[in-house]
Specification:
Blueprint: H1 3-26, E1 33-36, E2 47-52, H2 57-72, E3 76-79, H3 87-95, E4 105-110, E5 113-118, E6 124-129, H4 139-150
Parallel strand pairs: 2-3, 2-4
Antiparallel strand pairs: 1-6, 4-5, 5-6
Length: 159
C-alpha cells in the first residue's frame, strides 16, 4: 500500500471512529415500558393509596407531587406510610380487611417507575417505567400515562 493510500485510510478510520463516538454521546437510553392488565379496567380505581418507593426525602416529595396530579384529575389519592420489606407486604397491609381507609388500589412510586396494584386480587394491574436520566419520561409524563389508564383510554400495552 502506498504511503498516500495509508494516510487516506488512517484519516477515514479516524473520522469513522469520531463519528461513532459522537453518535454514542447523543444516543438516548430511555428504556421505557408500559404494561397493564386489559381484563381490569382502570376506571374502577377511585381511591388509590400512594407509597413512596423509598423513604428518602426526594422520593416522598415526588409522591406528594404525584398525589396532587391525581387529585387534580379527580381521583382520591391517599398517603400510606409504613415499613415493609417488599411491595407484596405493603399491598397486603394496605388492602387488608379492616385497614384504616378502604382503597381500590395501591400505587408504588419511584422517580423512574410506577406500579399500581389491585386490592381485590393483590396483583399488578398497571406498570410504567422509564430512564429520565437517559432522556426518557419523567414522573409527570409517566403519571399522565397512568391517568390515561385510569380514564379507560389505554389502547394496548407497549414495550
Amino acid at each position: 500500500m502506498s504511503r498516500r493510500r495509508a494516510q487516506v485510510a488512517l484519516r477515514t478510520g479516524l473520522l469513522a471512529t469520531a463519528a461513532i463516538v459522537a453518535a454514542g454521546c447523543f444516543y438516548s437510553k430511555k428504556n421505557e415500558f408500559e404494561d397493564w392488565n386489559p381484563a381490569v379496567p382502570g376506571t374502577r380505581y377511585k381511591t388509590i393509596a400512594t407509597i413512596a418507593g423509598t423513604s428518602s426525602g426526594p422520593a416522598i416529595r415526588l409522591t406528594v407531587q404525584l398525589r396532587q396530579q391525581l387529585k387534580e384529575g379527580g381521583w382520591n389519592p391517599v398517603p400510606r406510610s409504613g415499613r415493609w420489606d417488599n411491595a407484596a407486604e405493603a399491598v397486603n397491609g394496605v388492602c387488608a380487611p379492616g385497614a384504616e381507609e378502604p382503597v381500590d388500589g395501591v400505587l408504588i412510586v419511584a422517580y423512574n417507575h410506577l406500579t399500581l396494584y389491585d386490592c381485590q386480587t393483590l396483583k399488578t394491574v398497571y406498570e410504567i417505567g422509564s430512564s429520565p436520566e437517559g432522556g426518557g419520561m419523567g414522573l409527570k409524563e409517566m403519571t399522565n400515562h397512568l391517568i390515561r389508564y385510569l380514564q379507560g383510554k389505554s389502547a394496548k400495552p407497549t414495550g
